[in-house]
UniProtKB/TrEMBL annotation:
<dbReference type="GO" id="GO:0005886">
    <property type="term" value="C:plasma membrane"/>
</dbReference>
<comment type="similarity">
    <text>Belongs to the glycosyltransferase 2 family. GtrB subfamily.</text>
</comment>
<feature type="domain" description="Glycosyltransferase 2-like">
    <location>
        <begin position="6"/>
        <end position="167"/>
    </location>
</feature>
<keyword id="KW-0328">Glycosyltransferase</keyword>
<feature type="transmembrane region" description="Helical">
    <location>
        <begin position="271"/>
        <end position="293"/>
    </location>
</feature>
<dbReference type="GO" id="GO:0016757">
    <property type="term" value="F:glycosyltransferase activity"/>
</dbReference>
<dbReference type="InterPro" id="IPR029044">
    <property type="entry name" value="Nucleotide-diphossugar_trans"/>
</dbReference>
<keyword id="KW-0472">Membrane</keyword>
<keyword id="KW-1003">Cell membrane</keyword>
<dbReference type="InterPro" id="IPR050256">
    <property type="entry name" value="Glycosyltransferase_2"/>
</dbReference>
<protein>
    <submittedName>
        <fullName>Dolichol-phosphate mannosyltransferase</fullName>
    </submittedName>
</protein>
<keyword id="KW-1133">Transmembrane helix</keyword>
<dbReference type="Pfam" id="PF00535">
    <property type="entry name" value="Glycos_transf_2"/>
</dbReference>
<keyword id="KW-0808">Transferase</keyword>
<dbReference type="InterPro" id="IPR001173">
    <property type="entry name" value="Glyco_trans_2-like"/>
</dbReference>
<feature type="transmembrane region" description="Helical">
    <location>
        <begin position="230"/>
        <end position="251"/>
    </location>
</feature>
<keyword id="KW-0812">Transmembrane</keyword>
Length: 311
C-alpha cells in the first residue's frame, strides 16, 4: 500500500487550522493507506504555531515544520516536498478552498491512470473578488503565451505528485520557484482532475496584491525570455518610427511640404516616447539582472527553526 502525505502550508491561519485538521484527518482515516500530514508554519505571527504543536503532540501522524520567518507560500510548499518521505503527496491549502474530501477521488484517479501527477483544475471559484477572478484568469493565459512550456489553465498547487516527481523536484536548484510550472515542466504522466473551488472557510486571503505581483513576476521571469525579446522588438519599432519621422521632417523642410518650425509637439512627443521605451527596456533587463543576483548569492530558500515528529 502506498504511503500518502498531505502537505499544508500555513501562514496566520489560526482561524482555520482546527477545522482544517479535523476535516483532513476524517478523510485520511477512511483510506486504507498509511497517511501523514505535514504542516509548514511559514513564520505565522498568530496562534498557528501553538495550535500546530498541540496537534503534533497528540497525533504522531502529523509532522510540523516551523520556518524562522515568513518566506512565502512557494518556499513553504518546497520545504514540504523536500521533507516528505511518502510515496505520494497531495499539496493543499490550509483554508479548505481545495476540499480534502476530494482526496479519495484523486487517489483513485492516480491509481486508475497510473499517473505521476494529478493536477486539479478549477471549474469554478466561489467567494472570490471579481478582481482576483479576472487577474487569475488573465495570468494563466498570459503565462501560456509567454512560456516555452505549456501549462494547464486554472490550476493551482492543489495536486498529487508521486515519488518520481518529488525526487526530480528535489534536484531543482533555482530559488525563485513557480511550483505549478516546475511540476508541469518535469513531464511524466500527468492527468487533470476537475473540481469546484470553494470559498475560504474563515479568515482572509494571505495573498495581498503585493504578493500576487511578486508571484506573477517570478513565474513570468523564470519561465520566459519573451520580455527580453519584447524589449528588442520595442527598440526596433521605435528606431523605425524615428527614421520615418526624421526623413519626413527633413524632406519636408527641403521641399517645403512640412512646416516643421513649429517643432515643439514633435520634439516633446519623441522625447517622451523614446525615453519611455528606454526606461522600459532597461527595466526589463534589470529584472533579469536582479534574478541573476539572487540566484548567484545562492542563499537557502527557507530556514527551518524547529520541526516536530520528524525522525
Ligand atoms: N501561505 C503561506 N505563506 C504566505 C502566504 C500564504 O504559507 O506567505 C499559505 C496560506 O496559509 C494558504 C495558502 O498558502 O494555506 C494559500 O494562501 P491563500 O489561501 O491566502 O491564497 P488565495 O487562496 O487567496 O489565493
Ligand atoms: Mg485560499
Amino acid at each position: 500500500m502506498k504511503r500518502l502525505a498531505v502537505i499544508v502550508p500555513c501562514y496566520n491561519e489560526e482561524v482555520v487550522i482546527a477545522e482544517s485538521y479535523r476535516r483532513t484527518k476524517e478523510v485520511l482515516a477512511s483510506l486504507p493507506n498509511p497517511t501523514e500530514i505535514i504542516y509548514i508554519n511559514d513564520g505565522s505571527r498568530d496562534k498557528t504555531r501553538e495550535m500546530l504543536d498541540n496537534i503534533a503532540a497528540n497525533d504522531p501522524e502529523v509532522k510540523v515544520i516551523h520556518f524562522s520567518r515568513n518566506f512565502g507560500h512557494q518556499p513553504a510548499v518546497t520545504a514540504g516536498i523536500n521533507n516528505c518521505e511518502a510515496d505520494l503527496a497531495i499539496i493543499i491549502d490550509a483554508d479548505m478552498q481545495d476540499p480534502p474530501e476530494l482526496i479519495p477521488d484523486i487517489l483513485a484517479l492516480q491509481e486508475k491512470e497510473n499517473a505521476n501527477v494529478v493536477y486539479c483544475v478549477r471549474k469554478s471559484r466561489e467567494g472570490e473578488s471579481v478582481f482576483k477572478l479576472f487577474t487569475a484568469k488573465a495570468f494563466y493565459r498570459i503565462m501560456n503565451y509567454m512560456s516555452e512550456v505549456h501549462f494547464p489553465l486554472d490550476t493551482g498547487d492543489f495536486r498529487l505528485v508521486d515519488r518520481k516527481v518529488m525526487n526530480e523536484f528535489d534536484r531543482f536548484k533555482e530559488r525563485g520557484k513557480y511550483i505549478r510550472g516546475l511540476i508541469s515542466w518535469v513531464g511524466f504522466h500527468q492527468v487533470p482532475f476537475y473540481y469546484e473551488r470553494e470559498a475560504r472557510i474563515a479568515g482572509e486571503t494571505k495573498y495581498p496584491l503585493s504578493k500576487m505581483v511578486k508571484f506573477a513576476s517570478t513565474a513570468m521571469l523564470y519561465f520566459s525570455k519573451k520580455p527580453l525579446r519584447l524589449a528588442t522588438s520595442l527598440g526596433f519599432i521605435s528606431v523605425l518610427v524615428g527614421i520615418v519621422l526624421a526623413s519626413w521632417f527633413t524632406l519636408g523642410k527641403i521641399y517645403g511640404f512640412s512646416n516643421a518650425e513649429t517643432g515643439w509637439t514633435s520634439i516633446m512627443t519623441s522625447v517622451i516616447f523614446f525615453g519611455g521605451v528606454q526606461l522600459l527596456t532597461v527595466g526589463v533587463l534589470g529584472q533579469y539582472v536582479g534574478i541573476l543576483f539572487d540566484e548567484i548569492k545562492a542563499r537557502p530558500e527557507y530556514i527551518i527553526d524547529e520541526t516536530k515528529n520528524f525522525k
